[in-house]
Specification:
The structure holds two protein chains of two kinds. Chain A contains 18 helices and 19 strands. By secondary structure, chain A is an alpha+beta fold. In chain A, strands 12, 13, 14, 15, 16, 17, 18 and 19 form an eight-stranded antiparallel beta sheet that branches. A five-stranded antiparallel beta sheet of chain A has the order 5-6-10-8-9. In chain A, strands 1-2-4-3 form a four-stranded mixed beta sheet, with helices on one face. In chain A, helix 10 (268-278) packs across helix 13. The longest helix of chain A is centred in the C-terminal third of the chain and has 20 residues, at 401-420. Chain B is built from 15 helices and 18 strands. Chain B has helices at residues 10-23, 74-82, 108-113, 121-124, 127-130, 159-163, 197-208, 222-225, 231-236, 249-263, 274-285, 307-317, 343-353, 364-369, 378-391, and strands spanning 3-5, 27-30, 46-49, 58-60, 65-69, 86-87, 131-138, 143-147, 171-179, 181-182, 186-193, 214-220, 240-247, 270-272, 297-301, 320-325, 330-335, 356-361. In chain B, the strands form four sheets. An eight-stranded antiparallel beta sheet of chain B has the order 14-11-13-12-16-17-15-18, sandwiched between helices. In chain B, strands 4-5-9-7-8 form a five-stranded antiparallel beta sheet. A three-stranded parallel beta sheet of chain B has the order 1-3-2, with no helix packed on it. Classes of the chains: A alpha+beta, B alpha+beta. Chains A and B meet through strand 9, helix 8, helix 9, helix 11 and helix 17 of A and strand 8, helix 6, strand 10, helix 7 and helix 10 of B.
């Protein structure tokens, strides 16, 4: 994809590359610098693979001290810095720039302290999302936000993007599960924000830092909330003849006072692809499939699932299937959680991430079909129905430049539609490079200027993750 | 005589703030004024209230979302939610009766401006966790929106949550959109009487660390328990350790039994029924046990395990009676009167054990003399001051209410 313009790199910085690389080498431990071309190649893109750029250099610090020294150096030299975790961002949040140093936190993976009575864990943020749950799982605890990439993605990336997941209907997203951070500011100074207590003392700076897409500083450590696992959990499948019926069933379940831990929706194309991949036993002849998971004791689960089946009856589910075993449960979730991978096996796809009010789902799905058809592209839809987060996957041929461009335009139209119906451009992936230029559809120029002035509080020289989040035009005036 | 500005529309509020900022006229921003006695005393001669901005532009029970104009009273909103079997899950504590006001009169704008949360915070999160979006006006009259009406939204920086808890010093909220949740079918409470603080907090940790979704965990020292409205408990003259379970009735039965079993090593576990439970947590929500006193009252947020140590350390310096909420992580400490309300010693204790302390009740002269909010570390203080000047360049919104410098 090629529609999004990047700023002109700083020629001065690029001309000094050799000296900068030498100086960086002195600031990190052995093996902490990647400067050769092959090495840097591994960092040239992230989950938004259509965009690529070789960074000036990559550093892999092992401590907050090293991050602090690196930031102080780059700040003094006027060099841009792009923070990176595992590089799984779907919006180009970690896309490098030619004149920027990538500070990659993937070697900072320590669990510093777990305090079960306080229900907190202090970790370095290079740890993977699932790594936290793995560290506390034997004691019956877990870390709640569960983005699909949780096996690979780092907590640092989750904090930058305020990541969500399938189970956040009940447990919230990243911002609801972070209690404190240690953050290195652009000049290398280190601040502690929050801690192991529940609420903020002064302004809620933590709220600003979570979701700031690496533009306010580099978080190196975090205190996260860990929760006790439920006694058990079990999903069920319900297939419907139309999106309307499925949407109304979800509304009715919630109206009855039941908040399942997850309600996932898949449309027919998504069902077919996922079933072919995961053999989860998904019904193939329905238009809409709901995966609904509830938690509790065995009796509670049976009671809740039974009640949900009752509530859904007026909407005539064509298929109702309760998981009967841990194997079936695993298969049902494998199908959903591997949806992106499964679709990736049949085609390149462009994954959108708008959020919409649940009531507008039928309208939005109809419009998405129309929009995609007008570009001659196919689409599969995956939807976190409980919280309105919609992932249309636009299928295209990456070898056809025309289709590449169409997919991007098509995606832009879909996101504008999400904003029109009262939703937003991005529910959990972040703005990054991908949606930077669409921000003008969600915010007024004054609103963008206010956000940019806040960015300037943390980063007066705009050195941190520079080409992301805001349209390139109007930056200087707004930030002044 | 203070002049009171009462804009009737968002547009009027915006114009008024623009004019005030041009004239550099500082104002005290209030809703219904129930929390005016908290914070450093206002120096402003002009008051602006949002109480004319009322109404509920959006309520979609099946999408768990409500929008309300800032001046709408909490009582009205909670009544509307209750009629649909829903609630504000963060159960905001009502400071009004504590500070001489009428219960339920707090405006929803003030609830989010001060990020007040109650007992259920331990399970469901704080006010800020339920806030989805805001309309607000900056100190120089710029209207802006942040967030929206959907549950998941990471579009742009999270200004809504950043403004939540800023006590009207960054912006004036005109409308808030928030998540609502189903109210529970049944509430049960397990009580253990006579526990020392340390053991009580251990019991509460066991309860909230269980899989039974404990929705409140509190411990009241004996001297404060004697002030409870609940006659039976008052008559016991013992400390009260309380754990709440809320859910469908059949769940509550099963979970209460499981929890009783888990807690019996700490002492005899008593259970009170639905109605008595609602009354008990209702009075805690209004801090009934802290109302009949003029002694300085501190609200200390710390880690649950540090809670009893904070109280024990403070007690070395002064008479201190404590009510612990949030499994020990929130300490309401009533201390003996002193020129600084005990600030010097309390702040030293909190600095060594972690967290922060806010002086909630004290005479205006005391509040003028000490830092009401926890003083900030230099790095955070610098960011705080710069944020204030971005949102309120002329420094007219509640100047000095949180920090003397701005």
């Amino acid at each position: 994809m090629s529609l999004i313009a990047m700023p002109q790199p700083d020629a001065m910085v690029i001309s000094r590359r050799t000296a900068i690389v030498q100086e960086l080498a002195a600031l990190v431990g052995p093996g902490g610098l990647v400067a050769d071309e092959d090495g840097r190649r591994a960092f040239e893109t992230d989950g938004l693979t259509a965009y690529r750029c070789m960074p000036l250099a990559v550093v892999l610090p092992r401590s907050t001290d090293e991050v602090s020294r690196l930031m102080a150096y780059c700040h003094a030299q006027g060099i841009k810095v792009i923070a990176r975790g595992a590089g799984t961002s779907l919006c180009g949040g970690a896309l490098p720039a030619e004149d920027a140093v990538v500070i990659c936190l993937s070697r900072m993976t320590k669990v510093i302290e777990v305090n079960y009575p306080n229900r907190t864990a202090r970790v370095e943020v290079g740890i993977t999302n699932l790594g936290i749950s793995a560290a506390v799982g034997a004691n019956g605890f877990f870390y709640a936000p569960d983005p699909s990439s949780q096996l690979a993605c780092t907590l640092g990336g989750n904090i930058a993007m305020n990541s969500g997941g399938a189970h956040c209907l009940k447990y919230g997203v990243t911002t609801n599960n972070i209690m404190g951070v240690k953050m290195v500011l652009v000049d290398g100074s280190v601040v502690e924000i929050g801690g192991d207590h529940l609420d903020s003392g002064g302004y809620d700076l933590l709220a600003l830092v979570v979701g700031s897409e690496g533009q306010f500083g580099i978080v190196t450590e975090a205190t996260v909330r860990i929760l006790r696992q439920a006694e058990g959990a079990r999903p069920m499948l319900m297939g419907f003849a139309s999106p309307e019926a499925a949407g109304r069933a979800v509304s009715a379940i919630i109206a009855a006072g039941i908040i399942p831990v997850a309600i996932e929706y898949m449309d027919k194309p998504a069902i077919h692809v996922c079933e072919a991949f995961a053999k989860a036993g998904y019904p193939l002849d329905v238009e809409a499939l709901l995966i609904i998971e509830v938690e509790g004791s065995e009796d509670e689960i049976n009671g809740l699932l039974g009640r949900i089946v009752e509530i859904a009856q007026p909407f005539a589910p064509a298929v109702v299937r309760l998981s009967q075993s841990p194997e079936q449960t695993a298969a049902i979730w494998k199908g959903r959680k591997s949806a992106f991978g499964a679709i990736g096996r049949i085609s390149e796809y462009y994954c959108m991430d708008g959020t919409i009010p649940l009531g507008s789902l039928p309208h939005v799905l109809t419009r998405i079909s129309e929009i995609c058809a007008s570009y001659g592209l196919r689409v599969a839809n995956i939807f976190h129905a409980g919280d309105g987060n919609l992932h249309p996957l636009i299928l295209y041929d990456a070898n056809d430049p025309d289709q590449v461009e169409k997919a991007e335009l098509c995606g832009g139209e879909i996101l504008k539609l999400c904003v029109e119906v009262g939703g937003c451009l991005t529910g959990e992936h972040g703005v990054g490079v991908e949606k930077r230029d669409l921000m003008v559809f969600q915010f007024t120029p004054e609103e963008l200027a206010l956000q940019m002035r806040i960015k300037t509080v943390f980063d007066p020289g705009w050195l941190l993750n520079p080409a992301k989040v805001f349209p390139l035009a109007g930056r200087e005036a707004a930030a002044a | 005589m203070q002049s009171i500005l009462k804009p009737a529309t968002e547009w009027e509020l915006q114009r008024t703030l623009y004019d005030l900022s041009e004239a550099r006229t500082p104002i005290e921003v209030i809703g219904n004024g129930t929390k005016r006695a908290v914070g450093r005393a206002s120096q402003a001669g002009t008051v602006m209230t949002t109480q004319s901005l009322t109404g509920v532009p959006l309520y979609e029970p099946t999408e768990l979302v409500m929008s309300a104009r800032a001046g709408t009273s909490l009582a009205r909103l909670e009544a509307e939610l209750a009629s649909n079997g829903q609630m504000l899950a963060f159960e905001p504590v009502d400071l009004a009766p504590l500070l001489g006001g009428t219960p339920g009169q707090a405006s929803i704008g003030s609830v989010f401006s001060t990020n007040v949360s109650g007992a259920r915070r331990v399970m469901a999160g704080a006010a800020r966790d339920h806030l989805l979006g805001i309309s607000a006006v900056t100190g120089n009259g710029q209207l802006y929106r942040s967030g929206g009406r959907v549950m998941k939204n990471v579009t742009g920086y999270d200004l809504a949550r950043a403004v939540c808890g800023s006590w009207g010093t960054l912006s004036v909220l005109t409308e808030v959109t928030f998540k609502v949740l189903p109210a529970s079918q049944e509430t049960a409470t397990l009580l253990i009487l006579g526990l020392d603080d340390d053991i009580a907090i251990e019991a509460l940790a066991a309860a909230v660390g269980s899989p039974y979704e404990v929705s409140a965990a509190a411990h009241i020292q004996a001297s404060l328990a004697e002030r409870l409205v609940h006659e039976g408990l008052r008559a016991e003259r013992k400390s009260v350790t309380a754990v709440r379970i809320e859910n469908f009735s059949s769940f509550v039965r099963y979970r209460a039994d499981k929890l009783k079993d888990a807690l019996k090593i700490f002492g005899d576990v008593h259970e009170i029924d639905n109605e008595t439970s609602l009354a008990f947590w209702g009075e805690l929500r209004q801090l009934s046990l802290l109302q009949r006193s003029d002694d300085p009252l501190w609200r200390i947020s710390t880690s649950p395990q540090a809670g009893p140590r904070v109280v024990a350390s403070i007690s070395k310096f002064m008479r201190c009676q404590a009510f612990y909420d949030w499994a020990g992580g929130l300490v309401w400490a009533e201390v003996q009167p002193a020129a600084d309300a005990g600030a010097t010693d309390i702040r030293r204790v909190v600095a060594s054990l972690g967290g922060h302390a806010t002086l909630i009740r004290a005479a205006p002269a005391v509040r003028a003399a000490v830092d009401v909010f926890q003083p900030l570390e230099p790095g955070v203080a610098a960011i705080t001051a710069k944020l204030k000047s971005v949102f309120d360049p002329a420094g007219i919104l509640n100047p000095g209410r949180m920090y003397a410098a701005h």
